[in-house]
Design a protein that fits this description.
This protein has 225 residues and is α/β, with parallel strands linked by helices. Helix content is 40%, strand content 21%. The strands form 3 sheets. Strands 2-1-3-4-5 form a 5-stranded parallel β-sheet, sandwiched between helices.
Amino acid sequence: MKPSILIVDDEETMLDLLTMILEQDFSITTENDGAKALQLLHQQTFDLCLLDIMMPWTDGLDLLKQLRSLGNGVPVIFISARGELEDRVEGLELGADDYITKPFEPTEVIARVKSVLRRTGKELDQQEIKQSGIHIHLLAREARINGEKLKLTPIEFELLATLIQHPKQAFSREQLLERIWDYSYMGEARTVDTHIKNLRLKLRKAGFQEEGIQTIWGFGYKWGV
C-alpha cells in the first residue's frame, strides 16, 4: 500500500500540480478548504499532510495549531509563497516537519516528502522488488542475484533500488543526486557516474549479464531490462 498524503491548498491548479507530481508513488487526497481539511484529518489517518499557509477562513498556521493542540501528530510540510526566514521559522516552531517555498521544482517536493517519511517511519510500503533475477529487500537493505547477496555501498544500493523501482524511467544525474544524496547535496553531478560504474561492475561480477543500467548520453541513466 502506498503512503497516504493529504494536500491542502485553495488553488485548484496547485492541487492538480502536486497530485501529478506525487501520484505515482503516493495515495493522494486533496482539499481546498482548511476547515474541511481539519475535519478530514479527524476522520482519517494520513501518513503526511502538504499544507498551504495562505488560505481563506482557516489558514495553514491555524490548522496546524489546532492539530497539534488536539494531539494529532501527522507529519506536515508547509508549501507556501511566503518564503522569508521568519515565516519558515514560525512554521517549523509550530510543529511543521519541513517548509517548501513556492515556486518549487517537482524533484524537490518528491525528495522532501520522502525525507520526512523516512524520518517518521512512513516510507514506501513496498518491501521487496523482484526483477530479472535481482531480488531487493528494501527494509533489510539487501540485494541478491540468484540468491547471492551483493556487497553494495549504501549509495550503490539506493541507486539500484531507485532505478529498478522505476523501470524505463530516465533520471538525470541531478535528479539522482537529489533523491539519493538528499536535495541539499551540492556536489558535482558526475559523482553519480563513478557510483554507477562501480555498481555495474558488481552486477556483472555477480553474474548479471543483461544491460540493466542504461546510459542516456548527456542526461543520465535508466533501468532498461
